[in-house]
Design brief:
By secondary structure, the protein is mainly alpha-helical. It is 75% helix and 0% strand. It is built from 16 helices and no strands. Helix 5 crosses helix 13. The N terminus and C terminus are likely disordered.
Length: 406
């Protein structure tokens, strides 16, 4: 972009999308950090709770698949504008009901719409990065991490002051929904970004997405979320039961992980611009693998927290760069590529926590930490898929051998 009006529109589009990522980070954190309160409110048994928790990512995957087809008829920005308020209202509904069927209905709506939201947000991020001509994707995910920290902090305050879920959620939703709707006025995507030439979609003439080509990125996405869900679900238990920390200290690793995730994503785009996406992904995978190794071998709680710190710095770059790489591989079908790739977000989330829990119960939790370590390190094998691709690639031609799956 050479003229100032398009440049100003791009800046507005970037800021508005960052607000959307922030809002979703806060909303998701407000849900997952108050799951015990939801369980108590509705009297959900320990046996039934995993069913509810598994249903959300499964339905989110369905929502992501549906979004691939929906954006063929309407712009991703319109999808995001429509579903983001619904996600927030579903959170409020989950915290305001009295019967189990009401919780089930609210979580079902949350799952379906959050899948559409995640897919459409990242579609817009990929389009904006392409228009900017430089890495900005990590910045959007940094906004998500910041929202997650804010949401988790508010949830802690609600628990500390013994606020009901309705009292906690209602004013926040009343604030976040208007903020997201106002910001949505400036969303930009491939069909609304001003250009001097044809858009990538027009140039590609409706290119199709090859799952064989996309598969390495799908695996990276799943492995990254297996690692992330391991930290989310098992860090506190690991510190308390394996490393014999206090109950209070056991709550620290996830907060440290979130903060280091924010820091890594805040500066990650600079690393991509200087060293390239493939180098940043390799470094991130090595850091994350090293973090898991430190956690598995830690003699005490403080060493364990050092491992979780490395994990945050390493894992944080993988997911944003995976979405960005899909956009580069399929410039004429990036929306479809992002929607399909987004499904493996939920695949990793579904696999990660039960996998580590089962291995920890059958064997021991130190050994269980080595499994996500190995999977994250496998990402290095696919780092070539993050390199720039030849101009015109993504229009149905055979995949270059340098980024083949085999």
């Amino acid at each position: 972009m050479t003229d100032s009006p398009p440049s100003r529109r791009l800046r507005h589009g970037r800021a508005s999308l960052a607000i959307s990522f922030f809002v979703q980070g806060a909303v998701f954190a407000l849900l997952v950090t108050r799951i015990p309160a939801l369980q108590d409110r509705y009297g959900v048994s320990d046996g039934l709770l995993p069913v509810f928790l598994a249903a959300v990512p499964i339905l989110a995957g369905v929502g992501s698949v549906g979004t691939e087809h929906l954006v063929k008829r309407m712009r991703p920005g319109l999808v995001l504008r429509g579903v983001q308020p619904v996600v927030s209202l579903a959170l409020l509904a989950a915290g305001s009901g009295t019967a189990v069927w009401q919780l089930a209905s609210a979580l079902a709506v949350f799952g379906l719409t959050v899948g559409a939201l995640d897919a459409s947000m990242n579609m817009l991020g990929v389009s904006l990065q392409r228009a900017y001509g430089r890495s900005i994707m990590l910045g959007f995910h940094a906004a998500y991490s910041l929202g997650g920290i804010a949401g988790a902090s508010l949830a802690w305050a609600g628990a500390h002051w013994d606020l009901s879920l309705t009292t906690l959620y209602a004013p926040l939703v009343a604030t976040l929904v208007p903020a997201a709707l106002i910001a949505s006025r400036w969303y930009l995507d491939d069909r609304s970004i001003p250009r001097t030439g044809p858009s990538p979609a027009a140039e590609a003439g409706g290119a199709a997405v090859s799952m064989r080509v996309l598969l390495p990125l799908c695996l990276v996405m799943a492995f990254a979320y297996i690692g992330d869900s391991t930290v989310s679900n098992w860090s506190a238990k690991y510190l308390e039961d394996v490393l014999h920390s206090s109950e209070q200290l056991a709550t620290v690793p996830y907060n440290v992980y979130m903060v280091t995730t924010l820091l890594g994503r805040s500066f990650g785009d600079l690393g991509v611009r200087r060293f390239g996406a493939a180098a940043v992904v390799r470094a991130g995978a090595l850091l994350a693998g090293g973090g898991f190794a430190v956690v598995a071998a830690a003699p005490g709680a403080w060493a364990g927290m050092a491992g979780f710190t490395l994990l945050g710095l390493g894992l944080c770059v993988l997911v944003p760069q995976t979405f960005a790489a899909a956009g580069r591989l399929f410039p004429g079908a990036s929306d479809a590529a992002v929607a399909r790739l987004n499904i493996f977000n939920y695949v990793g989330f579904l696999i990660g926590s039960p996998l580590v829990g089962a291995l920890g119960g059958l064997w021991n939790y130190r050994a269980a930490m080595l499994v996500p370590m190995v999977l994250v390190l496998v990402t290095i094998r696919y780092a070539r898929s993050f390199s720039p691709v030849p101009a015109g690639y993504g229009d149905g031609h055979e995949r270059p051998r340098t980024v083949d799956v085999g």
